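Researcher: Going back to the complex we discussed earlier. I've cleaned up the inputs and rechecked each line, so this should be the final set. Can you rerun the prediction on the complete assembly and write out the structure?
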Amino acid sequence: MTTDALHENAIAPIEAKGWFAQNRSSIVRHAVINFFNVVILLPLTWVLLMSVKTLPDAMRGDFWPRSFDFTHYAYVFERIHTLPVNLFNSIYVTAATVLITTVCAVLAGYALVHIRPGGAGVVVTALLVSLYFPVRVVSIISIYETQYRLGLINNTSGLILPYVTLQLAISILIMRSMFQLVPHEIIESARIDGAGHWRTLLEVGLPMVRNGLVVIFIVNFVAAWGEYLLCVTLVDDEAKRTMPVVLAAAQGGQGQWSWPNLAAVYVIVVTPGIIAFTFAQKLFFKGLMEGALKG
Amino acid sequence: MGIPQYFSWNELRMTQTIASREANLDAKVEGGQFAQWRQGVGGWLFLLPALAFFIGYQVWPIFRVLWVSFTDFQFLSDKPAQWIWFNNYAQALSDPLLWTSLGRAALFTIMFLPGTIILPLLLAILVDKVSNQRLATLYRVILLIPAVIPSTLIFVLWKWMYNYQSGPINHLLVDVLGIFTLQNAPQWLGGTPLTLPSIAVMEVWWGLGYHTIFFIAGLAAISKDLPDAARIDGASEWQVFWHITRPQLAPIMMILVVLRFGTAMAVIDEYLIFGGFNRASPTYTWTVMMYDQAFKLGLWRQGYAASIGMIGAVAMMCVMVVLLRIFRPKG
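Model: Rerun complete. Updated structure for the full complex:
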């Protein structure tokens, strides 16, 4: 409500509906947006509340708990012995994947834009085609065979290799469009001053593409942290699996996997990503937009 | 869709102009022969780590699967694989289950595509008009939250939402609204006819924010002068949208349609989690059929499974190429 509108209402009460009529489109707009916001937040709030409900409340199904019970978080860590193991697997595999993919994507993106070796166009075309082909689904047959030959079946570390390629193509393409924003002259002048490609990339290039780095960090974190198909296919042993696969198999019921316990595990697994994103959102949006508005 | 597919506009546009642009870039290398050679080697050194992974775990597996699809390779069998030409393909194509499974994938795609394009477009236009910067940021952050929740965790969440007995959706329908009783409450998942629409709703929910942000980026690139001038001339909001905004967003929208068509046709994780390997379930699509043959049934007939995968992939690629041709910008 603007001060002008308030002022008008004050001196002309007869036109009381004037403010609403004037701002109708704005009110409708915010109402619609907030409707979708609620639709998005409701399921997540439900899980969050479930994780602090007492068992009887959980069975009753009310949205708001009648009494709060915060013991589930401690319980799941103390009583579900595989939980810390699975959680550690997830953290380890995801961290390695994000790190390796980021390094690969930065090096490749820089090379494709500022070194441009002969045949770079073929690489870019191949990366693009791979985005359209259902590679992930079809290749699973041969990836199993490869991992079997390498002795990496049922091996948590072995997951890192295929995980790196989950979002590799798009990460390279994002870094490529980021490096296209860095003027050639800047790279050239660093090179003329005697810096090698390594130093140019580290000292001149990287600081200029940090928004893109945030984007591929988040993209690869999301991909690796939640991967299902490869993990469920390549790893049989529950203790060697990652957290999402274990969660997907758990049926809500009694005992250690009761609903509030499941919900508590869920909150533990989901929250780090959301918090990290909320803090990085400014850079993330900038990165997305820079990639988007160019060209 | 398995994994939220991220991409920037730049990539989408590039797909159409890629060939000509790259050719120009390649020609620009300067200096003498030695300098050129050094530049080439240096460049490929930088590309090496990425290419090692890309070739090892994406390019090679695809060609290996193609090769295997012409053999009677069974993973758990000791017999060496025989080259059998198109026998796998002939057998797969004469199996009515393959056609049913392809049809199911197409059905899901039809349920999913309109919602995932139109809703975000509408939301983007609304959010784009929010002038309060803080509110605009808040809206974007909330909208993007599902996009930073990893795929499997989205499925786990919605498995609970749709749970027959204790899910909040049925709780609302049975206990709060009283529309259904515990006996006839809808069975959302688990191979019922409702399964595919339920998954489609989940997918739209998941992609809503990300696609909205995408369209917002597109709207930001459109000059505000033209719509403003039209409004002064008395055009309604709908006319502004239809005659000015829509045509400018059209190329991007169409490529989004093509990409999303691709992900929707190749869904597998959701079907495995929600439907399992029941052949009668609407979730038993060509992807699940391929997986079933490759890792579950008998001696793992991966030759046959590979042919199913290839048929499915080629079929959807053909449709995508046709779509790309239809929507190609004129001129």
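Model: Worth noting: Chain A touches chain B through 107 residues (CB under 8 Å).
Researcher: Good, that matches what I expected from the previous run.
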